[in-house]
Design a protein that fits this description.
The chain is mainly α. 61% of the residues lie in helices and 0% in strands.
Length: 542
């Protein structure tokens, strides 16, 4: 069955192409060593120079994207880390984040001299173990959070005289992003043991707090939830690979911790944030009823959660938010929740129930601009009237819902029409977003996770429609053109897995293997460290 993300595999992707590798990813294959290097490079260049949305479809070969552009030499510290994240160079993110959270952070991020020399911070020197680096990050993180909220000012000593509130806020934000990206990098690099160890050492796991059922006030809820979600994912993968025999018991323990933590929360935006993670984990474990029930509860207090989140944003950013923006965001989140419920029901085979839920999403969508009678007018206003990516994505999400429902009813032609229209809207949104910045509601923002760019989801499902109507070469072309458009952004795990599966179905073994190795080499050329060897479905281990 098709999904909003993929039909064969789930996507795990984001960000832009652009930058040249610092290193090859450990544990990733750098391409087939048995092939002649010059010939193989020519084949890669030929693939990347083919037709795509980036070039005129009838004149392939124009503006070939042959290599990733190098990183600016002036970048260092946190800006460098941001670029590495954008290019998905996750092995380099792990290395640099260790330096930034350790002794080198004084040099790279401009922290006040003497901070890491404090007795409480116990900053490591170069060459110390990861454990000591993480421990120092914990204390560093704790000091800045305490200073930021105006508590324990005597603990930071001279630091308070050398920095102001704005700088403290900036440092805290950087540290939170560094830890956030470090956890993501460990997950994408399949370093599950290190990930679990880091989550525990950073005290992002309630069962390991010194006081049961409480969390330190200096640890943001978003990181605790991300740490717990990462633990569940790591446990699940290890259980599937046969490396762990008590995965279900560990999951139940984390679930108990989440429910316990939930009972301590009063702020609606915090509660909403936790329920998003909870519903995702329940869906991951195929606990359909519990996940649907959690999403139903979120609908009940969605408006209060948005109001609480908006108040928090106004306090931090010192900007007022119009009530109309709050109303639009509330309705966009309601549509997102209904869409999640519909996809769960589709996976469970409950098509009538899924249709009913998708219809509720569509009704909310039409109410977002009651003055417009035509859906095109609504789309125009949504794309041009909101700074929130989640709101801008509403028209596309509605079309995806309709396409998935048609696909489930084996009406591939109608599904294909919906996905094509969704792709057009995503490209229109992308052009508009180039002229202004948009706020993406990620879990780190404190409200809800969001896919951001839905183009990969739409293209995957469109390719699946072609595949199911016996148009194999067209299905392959859809995904190959998407990759050529922007490898860093669109060569994701699910695209690789689905395309390699199509190669197996549509070509002989030798041709299929050659095409897979070209994809593998493109991933290496653009330092896409989150794509594992297993995603290429190669028959050998060369």
């Amino acid at each position: 069955m098709a999904s909003s993300s993929s039909s064969i595999n789930h996507p795990l992707a984001e960000n832009n192409p652009s930058l040249t590798p610092l290193s090859s990813s450990p544990g990733r294959r750098a391409g087939p060593s048995s092939m002649d290097s010059a010939t193989h490079d020519y084949q890669i260049d030929s693939f990347l120079s083919g037709p795509s949305h980036r070039t005129p479809m009838d004149e392939p070969g124009l503006l070939p994207l042959l290599k990733a552009t190098p990183l600016p030499e002036s970048l260092k510290g946190f800006p460098l880390l941001c670029h590495l994240v954008q290019r998905r160079a996750w092995s380099d993110v792990i290395v640099l984040s260790s330096q930034l959270l350790g002794g080198e952070s004084l040099v790279l991020t401009g922290l006040p001299n003497g901070l890491m020399d404090k007795e409480d911070s116990a900053g490591p020197v170069r060459g110390e173990t990861v454990e000591s680096t993480v421990e120092s990050a914990l204390n560093f993180y704790k000091i800045y959070y305490s200073q930021w909220i105006g508590q324990d000012s005597n603990r930071v000593g001279s630091v308070a005289t050398n920095t102001n509130h704005h700088e403290n806020e900036k440092y805290l934000s950087e540290v939170l992003w560094i830890v956030h990206w470090r956890l993501r990098a460990l997950l994408f690099q399949r370093r599950y043991h290190d990930l679990k160890k880091e989550v525990i050492r950073l005290k992002l796991f309630p069962s390991h707090h010194h006081v049961l059922n409480t969390r330190p006030d200096w640890v943001p809820l978003s990181l605790i939830l991300e740490g717990m979600a990462s633990m569940v994912h790591a446990i699940g993968i290890e259980s599937e690979e046969g490396k762990k025999h008590h995965g279900h018991a560990d999951f139940d323990e984390i679930l108990d911790d989440l429910y316990t933590l939930r009972s301590t929360l009063c702020n609606k935006s915090d509660l909403f944030q936790l329920d998003v993670v909870l519903s995702n984990l329940l869906m991951q474990k195929e606990e359909w009823r519990l996940s649907l029930l959690t999403l139903d509860k979120m609908l009940e207090y969605c408006q209060d959660a948005v109001v609480a989140w908006m108040e928090k944003i106004q306090t931090i950013e010192k900007n007022s938010v119009q009530s109309s923006a709050s109303d639009m965001l509330t309705k966009a989140i309601q549509i997102d929740i209904y869409s999640r419920q519909g996809k769960i029901l589709l996976q469970a085979g409950c098509l009538p129930a899924a249709a009913m839920v998708f219809e509720r999403a569509h009704s909310v969508y039409m109410s977002m601009n009651p003055e417009e009678t035509g859906i095109d007018g609504v789309e125009y206003n949504l794309l041009n009237g909101s700074d929130f990516t989640l709101v801008q994505n509403v028209p596309t999400q509605i079309l995806i819902n309709e396409g998935l429902l048609h696909f489930a009813h084996i009406d591939y032609d109608l599904a294909e029409q919906k996905f094509k229209k969704a792709i057009e809207l995503q490209r229109l949104k992308k052009r508009h977003s180039m002229d202004r910045s948009s706020r993406t509601l990620l879990i780190s923002d404190g409200l809800i996770d969001s896919e951001g760019d839905l183009l990969v989801s739409c293209a995957n499902n469109l390719a699946l429609c072609a595949l199911y109507t016996c148009r194999m070469r067209e299905a392959v072309s859809i995904l190959e053109c998407l990759i050529r458009e922007n490898p860093t952004e669109y060569l994701t795990e699910c695209v690789v897995f689905n395309l390699c599966t199509m190669y197996e179905l549509g070509y002989d073994n030798a041709t299929s293997e050659k095409k897979k190795k070209i994809l593998q080499s493109i991933a290496t050329r653009f330092t896409l460290h989150d794509i594992g060897f297993e995603n290429f479905r190669l028959s050998d281990d060369r």
